[in-house]
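Q: Protein A?
A:
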Amino acid sequence: MMFGMRVRGGLFAALVMFAAPVVATLATVAVSVPASAQTVDSITVEGNRRVELETIRSYFHPGPGGRLAQAQIDDGLKALIETGLFQDVHIDQRGGRLVVVVVENPVIGRVAFEGNKKIKDEQLTAEVQSKPRGTFSRPMVQSDALRIAEIYRRSGRYDVRVNPQIIEQPNNRVDLIFEVNEGVKTGVRSIEFIGNSAYSASRLRDVIKTRESNILSFLGGNDVYDPDRVEADRDLLRRFYLKNGYADVQVVAALTEYDPEKKGFLVTFKIEEGQQYRVASVNYTSSIATLDPNALRTYSRVNVGSLYNAEALEKSVEEMQIEASRRGYAFAVVRPRGDRNFDNHTVSITFAIDEGPRTYIERINIRGNSRTRDYVIRREFDISEGDAYNRALVDRAERRLKNLDFFKTVKITTEPGSSSDRVILIVDLEEKSTGDFSVSGGYSTTDGALAEVSVSERNLLGRGLFAKASVTYGQYARGYSLSFVEPYLLDYRVALGLDLYQRQQLSNSYIAYGTKTLGFSPRLGFSLREDLSLQLRYSIYQQEITLPSTLNNCNNVPTITLADGTVVPNPAFNPSPAYANLNGISLVSTNGLGCFFDGEASLPVRKELAGGKTLTSALGYTLNYNTLDNNKNPTDGLIVDFKQDFAGVGGDVSYIKTAIDAKYYTPLVSDIVGVIHAQGGILNKLGTSDLRMLDHFQMGPNLVRGFAPNGIGPRDINPYGTMDAIGGTKYWGVSAELQMPFWFLPKEVGLKGAVYADAGGLYDYQGPTSWAATGEVNVPGCIRPTNNPPSPGTCLGLSYDDSKVVRTSVGVGLIWQSPFGPLRFDYAVPLTKGAFDRTQEFRFGGGTTFEDRLPTGLRRMEWRSRSSTRVLLRHRWLK
């Protein structure tokens, strides 16, 4: 019986297999033949809930006569499937009518992520295409999973796994859950170079952005393998060689290999350096009859005898082409041509000036700026719609946009316009975070322990504005500052800066007095050239000196400590006798007036104290010339600051102050960089009023290392006073330094050493020397200073050391480009010094300030140098 059932079952299956093709053929005929007589209005739809009947019918386009042939039906079926709105679509023929049966895709109720710790939900939500209340589509979900995996790969996690989960809900709804297994971070374990002989591997690692993983890699991200960054590094290497004379260089390949044992990537750059060339000659030709090529000669940055420099060549072309445009030749094109002499390793350069194609800019399309306003981007262009197309100006605009530091990537390309003489500029951008919230803490030798909280934004409201607010509270230094910068004042390329600040410096081991300063300073910055800027500023600030109570009277201490350490009674502590005898020296009882031998502050300090609050109103300017190859870690170039301030535009003081500071960097041999630093300044009074001590220059390790803050120059030498530095009106200093990396340490650690020699001097105090200036009572019978140091009992006038001896020192340093900012440790030994100078052989310092990010020409300039030795440990959250 069972066997019979099997037979009948097999026979039935065979019949079904035979009948199926026949039935399918008949069904096709049943659909296709009558369907040819159908119209769109006669289509019936089944299964639709959210999608309207007319919407479905709209995908079927009738042929001639308004009839639907089989081809139109097939096209409509494909179009419905491609919408992604349906899980299934098929067409039936019932009773002579065309019936479209659909099964709608569910609606997504929510989209969630599980297991993601390194990347926030908000970032993943912005990337996926599947959205709440949207239509669920399996191909879209699969694409979203791949997109999430790509985001993790770009952050260095190549073994990430993304598994989408679907949870069905009532009413044809589903919840979409992306389960993420992030895996471990995939870093770059080694970076090697093949074919490099002119430059060491460590020097080339400085050129590229990619870094090897090390113990500090968790503080950065450049050690994470990123194929786009590696490809960009190839171009950086090529440009580096071209800048240094290697005109034939080729970076053949950037080979990457994953090493399972090291769990990271091995990156190898293959380089063919070629020969180093020098410039043999520079010539100029013009095919434009009315344009003299020699008129553009001054705009060339290429000199005979110098190393071939592709970067200087590009800037020369840019400057010459822009100048030609200014002279009325809007379509002039400057094309450099180089003829190599392979035997002599020289290149002859010819700048050929020709009439280029008459092409105009039809439109400038900007893409990728979701936050930054269009006009912020457009104002970086010196050209606009309708202007002649000038490639040099386009390249300049691209460079300016990159320098804004608002975008991760900037790329400007062209597309054909509406006619042959029109082009469309396409500006592709990728924005990045521009807000900083930082909490800093550290220690300063002058300010003691300190902490700072600051909030800053480089692209405020997407308008390109800079704003910062910070509060500092320390053991000896406190204050706040508010800064604002408008880089394009009234749509001109003029930057306006506003600073409001309040600072309080308390007395410490280097100064016996404190100061309070409240000020406001507007500034205007102009970029005269890419390497030259001008700042105009006005400063108005109020200062006052504060003294501890122990220094503000002369009868509050019972004993005096002499210069030799001897402790003796203070005759002024109990002013009953008119005279007293102390160690055989006659002293005067002053009844609290004019005493200068019980620890009183120096005369200039008392003068400032007696004057109360002082208002300074000054106009000033700064010229800055900068050709450094890297502002943070320079190895080549020159930077010069020349500044002057004129006080006396109202206020209580008047003077003219001038200073210059220049640093020259040059590579010597291998990775050794030579640095020459020269500086100097002079302060002159205007009118007959004396100069204030607070307006004098105060110098220390900022002039000659090995000396304490305020440790150099004129000093009050009264042994019974505080022996404060009183400053000088003239200073000069020179320094020679060699900087070199440690060959036995990974380059990514950022450590290098330095050896140096310093020399300098500060002298010519021009302040009050008589107690009459303070308004205090002169004491009869006081001994005038006759000795140096003065004898005990001296209380009239000011005795100070103004030795013009040249201060010199030699030392060694450790420079660390740390994740917290640049840090430096120095040990210097003074070789020559003044009799009363104060030394400090060991010093450490560092930290960066927000001025590093201000537009060119708007960095804040402060005259009073505090010589602070500060280390800031900073934690920062990016908005």
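Q: Protein B?
A:
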Amino acid sequence: MSERNRPHILIPSPPITEGFTPIGAGGREPRPFTGNRGSHGRRLKREFEQAWPEDQQEEGTTITFESFPGLQLALESLDPQGSGEQPELLSVSTREVDGAAVQVATVFIPFGKKAYFLQRLEQYVATATDDKAKNAKLVEGIRTIRRATIRELWTDPDELFPSFLGDSRWWEVWLRKRDGREQQRLSEYAAAHQLRTSDHYLGFNDRTVVLLKATANQLAETFEALDDIAELRQPHEVSSFLTELPASEQREWVEDLRSRLEVAGPDAPVVCVLDTGVQDAHPLLSDSLDGTDLHTADPAWAVRPIEAHGTEMAGLALYRDLSAALTSRVPIRLSHRLESVKILPDRGENDGELYGAVTARAVDRPEISAVNRSRVFMLAVTAPVTGGAADAGKPSSWSAAVDALAFGRAIDDTDPKLTYLDRDEVRRPRLFVVSAGNIRDLRPGDDHLARSDTEPVEEPAQAWNALTVGAYSPHDDMAAAPSDFAGWVPVAPRGELAPTSRTSVILDRKKWPFKPEVVADGGNAAVAPNATDIDTPPNLALLTTRLQRTGEGYFTTTRDTSAATAQVASIAAEIMAAYPTLRPETVRAMIVHSAEWTEAMRSQIDAVSSRKSEIGALLRRYGMGVPNATRATSSAIDALTLVAESQIHPFERDGSGEPKLCEMNLHELPWPAQQLEALGSANVRLRVTLSYFVEPNPSNRGWSGRYAYPSHGLRFTTKRAVESVAAFRERINKRARDDSWLSTTSRPEGGWLFGADQQQAPGSLHTDIWTGTAADLASKGAIAVYPVAGWWKRRPKLDQSELGVDYSLVVSIESPDVEVDLWTPVMQQITPVVEIDT
């Protein structure tokens, strides 16, 4: 393949927009009810009456509806959302009974709305003998009805609910938004009953999140006294940081590198390190980190760091490979700078704190200081996940805050204790690069890949809009190891996943995105000769800058997914420097698009290449592989990358107010068709990446329909070699068909590595690779982007489709076996001809 010395081609022309109706796929018939309808309805009516308090004193009553095993409740019928005050679905959880899932929904019923359910139950009983009983969808999924307790409001796994109800502990309390005074009511109640609340709280569209320290019994009393509590979860506890490891401490290394260093100017992009603070006095950081760019999430904290982790991350975020910079003898030109926000106090962790609010305040500080600066936010602080496989990947207040910030929500902190993610301000999207989190209790006898496959990514790495980074091990050579590691054996073969890296293999693939999207160097571990100990020799770790204390040197070593995250953040800033006008969504896409699997990863993928589900599992282990800064910023003559940025309006409403999908965009790309046709049967590769950001809906109310987590979804599909553009439109868009259209069977197109399972999977980033002949690729230069459902569609008062949503499409063509100029003919198609007057 030729040298990558050409810029990527940015497509200036917009796509063709047309009205869109998807091709229906049909639905599954509901399971028929096999019991006695009349008896079932009468029993539920009796349970509902018993659950209602005899002497109604409060503004309403909270009732729990439980499904039959294996069935789902009609959640939207439990949450009518009509005019005036209506019953409100608060939360939904799932538990297992005899191997089958049971859905538990908790509903607040306002005073005066008792009849809403009673009438439906009575109508069902009255029509029980008819072929179609009224309200059957609502009633026949319900197994039992009872008065709600705090146990039903708990949406984390059952086993995490406190077993000792008298122990005081922190609870994450989600309040339903009613009149704006819900947090005040909770605070006043807590103060009156000697309970503690967190100093800060977090606001979403219809939920406010606050921490409350209480026993389960005290919380139950709070629930009985207040009608505001919608959901309970377990708070986050941040992970412990890496211990410092020994490294060479030679002053002359520092002086030599500084003599060859050209730092970026004050207007350059920055990596904003959200961590324990960064030591700006370090000689390898000082020229790239101004004192005015040091911030703290809490103004009361000291700016200077005490903990080392942030300074270690800064060295990698700035230099990416500090070891290579030190050992080379050529000039080093930096294209970006650093910022720092301390998000943890020097004592180690925030006591009773919401990390979503901390993160939002941390983002706010540098944006106020330098509002127009291009930046990538790097977050390598994580919290252990809660629960087992069934709840892995579930959004949290922290991950949802990251998603809202990435989507571009403004931070309204008029109230210094409330961090509200404001929907009224103009969106300003942000790029977050987040660590996948580490396995901290490595065991010498582990099968490290099997272990990583069962250890899900940590908080907040499940955020849909974040670029999540795992770690791999590029080195397994012990020749340079210190003598006290003689005989030790590396855990991971060269190029494999790092032993500590977490994955999303066990996450529900129908609900949650694949994570990590990419992996980077996270070092390796080694096992002692007697297999009783496991550690990381310094030769298998990464050299970086050390937090300097009296008498200490300039360097240390680090490892794991935090180190990998810093390197990827550095690549993101380099892309911003090379293409300063690109959106954050595009920068994320270009990083993922540049990634390639190592030989070790590729061998695993090739072994299951015919089995899409197993390929999907490997995608959730490795992501798309290791990103490359050169590939991310440069094309080659025979490796062309096209970048298109556009906007789409996902939803619209007809005259009756019924929601429907709105439009699709057809990208007819400048394409080297003649050059590809000339190559004939030569093997070529097409790669497509679609990236966009979604607005989160983090309350746990079933994760579908109007309670779905993403505001909208987008998908791409490509024209096939055998069809015209008109036939392509008709195949995917019902509105493009006329009365003369004839139905045909459309089979999935071959040649795609992941195929429809991944292209249609959840997430806000979709990517796939097609391999085939150049002749076939010559006529595939059209790509459609279209919307799929999200919560905006079913919640018209909150739908912002009319404002449009941004997306980025990155498309590359590579001819690995034949050297041919694909770049020049495409560039000529988009470059206007300049006529010279004579």
